[in-house]
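User: Let's play a game. I give you a shape written as tokens, and you guess the letters that built it. Ready? Here's round one.
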């Protein structure tokens, strides 16, 4: 028999899937004008009263305006979630910006720079040895 954590996991996945579709339908310019917005994960409490929705956004955006837009759309999103999912309680939605992908890209660029610098240093050392020899 599946435990309650498995049920919460399925609900998190369902909420993520439905909200991904719904975010594209929002007319609020604070949200609709974004180039690309995706939900990286959803964490719902065990009593299904609250769900943290983590968003990843590509491109420039005003975080304060985005959060205001999401907060104003939260009621509609919650109502649509209730209509599409068969769960007793539709959780309150709390939106958080997930900077994980941005941070990962930054680390990747730093590593690429280090590798490039090391390759240049090695090629300079090899050419110096050839000139001295």
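Assistant: Ready! My guess for every position:
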């Amino acid at each position: 028999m599946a435990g309650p954590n498995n049920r919460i996991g399925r609900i998190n996945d369902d909420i993520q899937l439905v909200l991904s579709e719904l975010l594209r339908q929002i007319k609020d310019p604070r949200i609709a004008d974004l180039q690309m917005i995706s939900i990286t994960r959803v964490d719902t409490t065990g009593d299904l009263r609250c769900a943290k929705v983590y968003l990843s956004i590509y491109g420039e955006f005003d975080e304060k305006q985005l959060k205001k837009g999401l907060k104003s759309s939260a009621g509609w999103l919650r109502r649509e979630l209730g209509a599409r999912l068969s769960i007793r309680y539709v959780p309150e939605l709390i939106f958080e910006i997930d900077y994980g992908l941005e941070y990962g890209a930054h680390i990747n660029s730093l590593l690429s720079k280090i590798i490039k610098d090391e390759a240049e240093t090695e090629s300079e050392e090899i050419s110096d040895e050839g000139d001295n020899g």
